[in-house]
Amino acid sequence: MAHTIKTTDKKPTPKADIIGGHTLSMYVTNQPGVLMRICQVFARRAYNIDSVVVSQGRDPAFSRLTLGISGDPAGLDQIIKQCNKLIDVIHCSEHTSSEAVVRELALIKVKLDSTEKRTELLQIVEHFGGKTVDLTEVSMVVRIEGASDKVDAAIRLLVNYDIIETVRTGKVVMARGEQPT
Amino acid sequence: MDGAQALIRTLDDLGIEYVFGYSGGAALPIFDALETVDSKIKFVLARHEQGATHMADGYARATGKPAVVLVTSGPGAGNTITGIMTAQMDSIPMIVVCGQQVTWMLGLDAFQEADIFGITIPIVKHNYLVRETNAIPRIAREAYHIATTGRPGPVLIDIPKNISQSPFNGDLDAPMDLPGYHPDESYIIDPEPVEQAALLINLAKKPVILAGHGAMISGAENELMELATKMNSPVTSTLLGKGVFPEDHPLSLGMLGMHGTAYANKAMVECDLIVNIGSRFDDRIIGQADKFGAQAKIIHIDIDPSEMNKMIRPDIEVIGDAKAVLKALNSQVEERTNESWIESMDGYKKKYPLAYKKQGGLRMQQVLDEIYELTNGDAIVTTDVGQHQMWAAQFYKNSKSYKWISSGGAGTMGFGFPSAIGAQFACPDQTVIAVCGDGGFQMTLCELATAVIHKLPIKILVLNNHYLGMVRQWQELFFDNRESGVDLEGNPDFVKLAEAYGAKGINIKRPADVGKKLEEALAYNDGPVLINAECIKADNVFPMIPAGAALEDMLTEPPKYKMEKPVGST
Ligand SMILES: Cc1ncc(C[n+]2csc(CCOP(=O)(O)OP(=O)(O)O)c2C)c(N)n1
Fold it and tell me: How far apart are the C-alpha atoms of B279 and B108, rounded to whole Å?
């Protein structure tokens, strides 16, 4: 019998810059409401937050935030200063990909209806250094990890198959060399 | 000791003199602690929470020190929003303490629960929702520190009732923990931009100093005077900077901006250097941003790095406390005379004086001019928002800091009278005048009761044009004089109203009576006196730079042509 799998993936062809133009890294105190303060700085100035990754710092009193944002580049300087002005923000700075390592991870669920398809898919996944993390007769979940453009490229190829859904972590960033982020 | 008592003890220890507030269920433990803790704190019951916030604001603007606002949860906290926003816009230190539902009811739409922490995030310098009784003293100290240092501002502390009434067994002197806040750095001035600023200053032939509120907050009056004298530069001030440089000094140009003096605005258009000391280049003073100072070099001195390049891109940015910057700068500045520049400014002062007609009915300008003369310009003047505010700014020249109290950034109607109450509590021996419109006064007039019971000898000047005058002016100029929602039909008899509260009331109807009636009011010190001045209904404030227009488009008199609707700003 035919499986009807509802897809939630509404973006058929993701653009290369899907995660937006700028990457900000922030070090903030680990307290309720901090994210709300930061989000309001962006929303009020009509910036869209494309991705946000928050996790506890090595010192649990602090959190590390990486934000992918898009909006008028002319206002970025103002946004960074406004974030730095927040009492809970220890520091906030922008990172360009040339001076920082940027990584993200995507889980992509693809519909399988033939063995040929499965073989093709596995080749693509292998090409991108990805992994199959879940496999059934009718579906497969692959994991792709790397720079955002690599993840974009993998998704562009996988779109030719039936993507049921994609979940991206959003990028995390770390400055290259001995420079702290 | 419970959390509430620990709070009051800490506030007392911090030197808080006044708590302005309004009680309610969630704040009961804290109100009780005001009674049970032996402290120097005086509590003033306002008649509306908004009034309490403006009282604390007026107290701070008259002293530079913060007062505390204490309210209950939900509607009580909600009523403080306008006052908090007003303080935030004008960098006023204030500590707002709100009672809150008990912690386990938060998020359950419990009685009088409002997420005041979330609601106020965009209008405070910082805020707290206290979740631990023992953290109360640390948080109170942090709130005071944050409110009063760097660029000051309001800090809100939301305290659930179970937190305030639980036993306290922590450290009353617990140290602050603010790893992301370093106001001390504002006193470390980078010498390089200061040197560059001095270079530009020494090259300028037509300089203007723009003195803002930041210069006042940092206490830079003497350094500013030294700089202006050395440069022999005219000085204009913002609405909030009024008094930081004496307005009766020959170098003073008075206030600039939308309704500033013609000569101040001319100076901005013709100068070759603008030295901005602690002003944020508000849209009410720069007009059209891309034309502002296009002919001039611009030095911007500000404690807040986010003010740099926000409205105007300066040639030199100097980040730091204004007084510290000027101290570093002054020694590098050469003495100048700038004779022809000063002469041309004096010429403009003669050509475009602030003047008004004494015929054809009573004008607000006359009342303000006469009260200025009668008080030798030495009273504390608070204002509401509207035409009377702009005329007061023009005609009540301030020669000292902390004597001009007006809502600038927020333009909050209802501010004038309660802020005068706060100022009078702060300065019991000074004459305090609240200049109000008939519109704005009615927004917070219930505080008459507060002023009466404390016998505060405030002179409440209601400049009554039976209109929302400033809005009517815009409708006349930009909307073909179509009046919409500006007629204050139904105004009470203000003298009777004052008397009903137990205050003294005086009517002024004729221009010839102004002097003697004002003298009578000034002589009355047994409590508040309300002077209702029946002014001509339709008068307009000039000079005027239409919102968002360039400074050179200033009108010094009523236009003879139809005006475009302002689009550049509100
Ligand atoms: C709380 C609030 N509501 C509305 C306004 C908009 N507003 C600015 S000036 C003004 C008219 C003020 O009228 P009035 O108090 O009578 O003073 P006047 O201009 O007549 O001197 C209004 C409605 C405001 N500034 N604040």
Answer: 44
DSSP-derived secondary structure letter, B140: H
Q: Which residues of B128-137 are buried (b: 16+ CB within 10 A; e: fewer)?
A: bbbeebbbbb
pLDDT interval class at B147 (50, 70, 90): very high
Q: Find the CB nearest A33 among B117, B304, B309.
A: B117
Arch. (CATH architecture) of B3-176:
3-Layer(aba) Sandwich (3.40)
CATH architecture of the region B185-351: 3-Layer(aba) Sandwich (3.40)
CATH code of the domain made up of B364-542: 3.40.50.970
User: Are both A17-100 and A101-175 of the same fold?
Assistant: yes
Give the pairing type, strands A89-95 and A22-29.
Answer: antiparallel
Does the pTM exceed 0.90? yes
Catalytic residue among B5, B20, B31, B49: B49
B560 is catalytic: no
Distance of CA B280 to the CA centre of its chain: 14
Domain layout of chain A by residue ranges? 17-100, 101-175
Give contacts of A89 with chain B, Cβ < 8 Å. 180
* pLDDT tens for each residue of B493-538: 999 999 999 999 999 999 999 999 999 999 999 999 999 999 999 9
Please indicate whether residue B206 is annotated as part of the active site: no
Q: Considering B112, B196, B332, B430, which one is annotated as catalytic? A: B112
Using most ligand atoms within 8 A of CB, pick from B365, B468, B476 the residue to mutate for ligand 1: B468
Ligand 1: residues with CB < 6 A are B 384-388, 411-414, 437-440, 463, 465, 467-471
CATH number of this structure's domain A17-100: 3.30.70.260
Per-residue pLDDT tens digits for A57-112: 999 999 999 999 988 888 899 999 999 999 999 999 998 777 899 999 999 999 99
In chain B, ranges of CATH 3.40.50.1220 domains: 185-351
Partners of residue A81 in chain B, C-beta under 8 Å: 305-306, 308
For B170-216, give the secondary structure using H, E and C.
Answer: CCCCCCCCCCCCCHHHHHCCCHHHHHHHHHHHHHCCCEEEEECHHHH
- The pLDDT confidence band at residue A1, using thresholds 50, 70 and 90, is very low
| Topology, domain A101-175 | Alpha-Beta Plaits (3.30.70)
Interface of A with B in 91-130 (CB under 8 A): 91
ipTM above 0.90, yes or no: yes
